[in-house]
Every structure is written in C-alpha cells, then in structure tokens.
Amino acid sequence: MIGSKPAELSPSGQAITWSDSDKSVAVGAYALRLGDDALVLAHRMAEWIASAPELEEDVALANIGLDLLGQARMLLTYAGEVDGTGRSEDDLAYFRDEREFVNCQLVELPNGDFAVTMARMLVFAAYQYELYDRLCSSSDETLAAVAAKAVKEVAYHRDHATRWVLRLGDGTAESQQRMQAALDVVWPYVSELFEGNELVHGLVGGGIAVDPAELRDPTTDYLTTVIEQATLTVPDTSVWHTGGRRGIHTEALGYLLAEMQHLARTHPGAPW
Amino acid sequence: MTQSPGQDLSAEGGHGAVPTTGVPATSGRAVRDWPLWEVFVRARRGLSHGHVGSLHAPDAEMALRNARDVYTRRQEGVSIWVVPAAAISASSPDEKDAFFDPAGDKVYRHPTFYDVPEGVEHL
C-alpha cells in the first residue's frame, strides 16, 4: 500500500490571512508546481517520438505529450503573470536551473522500457485526474479554467495507461514480469504526490488549491483496482522518495533539462 | 497482381483488393503481430461514417483509441468505427468491367431530372 507521510500541520479549512501580494505569490508558486509536473512529463513523452513500439503508439504518446505541454504553457504563463515577476513561459521553462524546478520526482524518472512509461503514466494520470476534477471548482478562475480543459485530456491519458497495464499485466509471462517490475520502479515516488506544504494549505483554506492529501485515497483506490485486475501486485514499498517540491531531484532531471534548455540558452530569444 | 477466379479478397489499407490467401507472410517488410483495422469516421451528426484509412492495433478497443489519435486529432469526427480489415470482402479488380461498366451509359439513373428543393443538405 501507499505509505503515509507525516501529515503537514495546517489542515484544510484553516485559512491563513495573507496580504493580496502574498496571496498572488502563493498562487504563482502553486501554478508553477502544477506546471512543472506537466512540463517535465511532456518532455519525457516527447522523448518517445520515433522510438515507440508501433507507429500508432508513437502518435498516441506524442498526443499525450502535447496535451501536457499545453497544460504547462497555460500554467507557467499564469505563474509568471500572477506572481508579479513578469516572467514569460519561456523564462520559466528554459532559464531556471534544476533546483528551481518544483515538479514531483515521479515525472522526471527516465522512460525505461514501455512498461515503465505506462506505469508512470498510470500513476500520474490517476493523480492528475483527481486533482483537476477538484480544481475545476477553484475560486481562482484561471486555475479552474485550466483544470476544466485538462481534466478531459487527463481522463484519456489515464484510460490509455490503464488499457496497456491491463494488457501487459494479464498478457504473456514476460509482459507480466516486466509490467510488475515497472510498477516496482515507480512506486516509491507515489507518496510524494500527496504531500502538501504551508503554501498549498494556505491556498486550500482560501478555496484556491486542492489539498493533495485528499487525493490519496481516490487515486490509490483507482490504481489498486487496475493493478489487481491486471493480475499484478501493488508493490510493497518501505522507502518513499520526496523533495521535488523543494527543488531536490533525482539525477535524471539535470540531463532532461540540459536537453530541453540548451537550444534556448544557446540562442536566447531566438524565434521561429 | 493476378487473381484466380473465386479467390477471396480483402481490403488492406484502403488500397483496393488483396487476396486473403496465397500471399507470402514476409513480403519484404517486417512481420507485424498486430492485425490491420479499417477506420470509418462520422464527421458530424447526420452524415454517414466514411472510410478514412487504416491502422494496426492488438484488439478492437485499442484500435478505436489508436484511430482517435491518428485520425481525429483535428476534430475530424464525432464517432468512429473500426473493422478488422480481414472481415471486409472486396470486389476484384478483374471483375471491374462486369461490375461497373454497365452503369456507364445509364444517365437516367442520376437524379439530374429532378428539382432539388431548397434547404436539402448533404445530397
């Protein structure tokens, strides 16, 4: 089962009194957190292009990557506007260093084989679906609009991953073994998804953000159902990795950013 | 390609009629494990499903989803059908004359002798 991290102390409902500018900075940081998740996973999907097992799957993974990239663009643009720094989406995507990225570690994990990519997509889309489903009723109109658009996209990502996990898990002896191994790889990164911090909890109190802890049960229930139906086993993990929200990442993110950012940094401001 | 009389033909990739038997399994390209599916898309309500192309998929559910990704990325449709290409019986190119030529000189079959009422769409 997904282990419990120590709960952060400010439960939802306990509103923190912020000045308007403090609140704007917090909303920006929250949008950045959501946007970085989407951006990094979009890049991982893009890495599959021309390498997927079949042409049809190549197109599917590219579509999913483009959905995520669209979410990232909206969220990063909003983050740079609302926090008052005037940073553009490109400033945020291409000119921040590794320690300034606040994505969860799950999305930066290397693609591995196709099973690892599907395991990661299953977990992340299941989480993102529950998140966006609730964020649709955020009191922040921009976040609510982004969520309303994204929740349909994410429903498809979740469906895509679910179907593959079912087929690979309940497939041949080798596909089952590799699908199980893939779940074992991603599972230690699941718990981080449900961690909040003071900033998020402050926004939860104001009706702006979704409390990540609230997503743990519905996400876990969905994943457990799929995994069991796929004749696989929910990994028994005792070590949970965390730190992404504080800018602490696995070694994989640095390589990803080097590839993603080098063109924009070599030719700053280059247009098409 | 020479057809023998009475040979079964299937549609492959929307490229016409292909024998279902007697074709070498490896004809210079990679052997595919996934069967071929023909894809039909309805552009909007009121129209019929039209053939748009084909794809490979392991089963019908995945074929539908692949079709969604390959053929409706630009809002081309509101409904999709997928059909195993092997399930389609195709007319033979050798029978083209007998099948289609007789209709060539029967212009009275075209509805050009009627006035079409205004406001009739999709005719």
Mind explaining what this structure looks like?
The complex is a heterodimer of chains A (272) and B (123). Chain A has one domain (20-234, 242-266): Ferritin, core subunit, four-helix bundle (Ferritin, Up-down Bundle). Chain A contains 10 helices and no strands. Chain A has helices at residues 20-46, 55-82, 89-94, 105-108, 114-135, 141-169, 173-186, 198-205, 216-229, 251-266. In chain A, α1 (20-46) runs antiparallel to α2. The termini of chain A are far apart. Residues 3-13 of chain A have low confidence and may be disordered. Chain B has a single domain, classed as Phenylacetic acid degradation B (Ubiquitin-like (UB roll)), CATH 3.10.20.520. In chain B, a hairpin with a 5-residue loop joins β1 (9-11) and β2. The chains are: A mainly alpha (272), B alpha+beta (123). Chains A and B meet through α2 and α6 of A and α1 of B.
What are the SSEs and their pairings?
The complex is a heterodimer of chains A (272) and B (123).
Chain A: H1 20-46, H2 55-82, H3 89-94, H4 105-108, H5 114-135, H6 141-169, H7 173-186, H8 198-205, H9 216-229, H10 251-266
Chain B: E1 9-11, E2 17-19, E3 36-42, E4 50-56, H1 60-71, E5 79-84, H2 96-100
Antiparallel strand pairs in B: 1-2, 3-4, 3-5
Write out key terms for the chains shown.
heterodimer; A: 272 residues; mainly alpha; Ferritin; 10 helices; disordered N terminus; B: 123 residues; alpha+beta; Ubiquitin-like (UB roll); three-stranded antiparallel beta sheet; two-stranded antiparallel ribbon; 2 helices; 14% helix; flat
Mean pLDDT of chain A: 93
For the sheet with most strands of chain B, the description reads:
3 strands, antiparallel
How is the CATH topology of chain A named?
A: Ferritin
Number of domains of chain B: 1
Radius of gyration of chain A: 18 Å
CATH architecture call of chain A: Up-down Bundle
Helicity of chain A, in percent? 55-70%
**Poorly predicted ranges of chain B:** 25-31
Question: Please, what is the CATH homologous superfamily of chain A?
Answer: Ferritin, core subunit, four-helix bundle
Number of E strands of chain B: 5
> What spatial form of chain B do the alpha-carbon principal axes imply?
flat
Protein structure class of chain A: mainly alpha
Percent in strands of chain B: 15-25%
- Gyration radius of chain B, rounded: 19 Å
